[in-house]
Amino acid sequence: MTDERNATDATDTPDGAAALRERIVRHEWDQFQRTNNEGGRAACQGNWPVFHQMRLSQFLTWGVPLLDSYAHDLDEADRIGRNLVTEKYGRMMASTAPDEYARGIEPYIPHLDADRIAHQERVIATQVAWARAFRDRYPKLGEAMRVLTTGEDTHEATSFETYLRGELGTYSDATFALYERMVADLESEGRNLTEETIRNTVELGGFADLDEAEAAQAA
């Protein structure tokens, strides 16, 4: 049995999956540190604890095959000189700064074909609906979220929808297919990915559950 097979098997344990999630968050952080922002370095680029909490909250909802695929995306990006975090923020500018995006970003990032975009938009619509339902159920926690839709974007504020569109656009076809399947499975089970992600966030922050976190916001 090859070393590669052994390494893959190791992620099938809870400890292995946890280590893989931590490696992905650290890899994203490293790419984030190499992301240049208009106006200089952003304050959030120096806040590892919050970055770790927010990104780990998302990856705790992912299974090992999806984690493995995205970890490979990050490794491949390094190999060919891409920065997926930089690209994610660049893709968001299609909404928040469209002229700058068309002139200085779109020509230099991978093109997404019409079929991929259509599949992404179906996923995004599902997730925006989940986010809206979460905000209705937990309004105080919802107030701390990004604005919801691309129509609410400004040059200074990026919505949940636009952020998600930017992130999904950086995934390889293999990773996106696994992500799309996860969303479809959650939908068929009547689950809400936003709720599960934010539950992870508040539990990592020391709350027992979403109800306790909501009550603390309301106090």
From TrEMBL:
Superkingdom of origin: Bacteria
InterPro entries cross-referenced by the UniProt entry: DUF4125
Name of this chain's protein: DUF4125 family protein
Organism from which the protein derives: Bifidobacterium platyrrhinorum
Taxon lineage: Bacteria, Bacillati, Actinomycetota, Actinomycetes, Bifidobacteriales
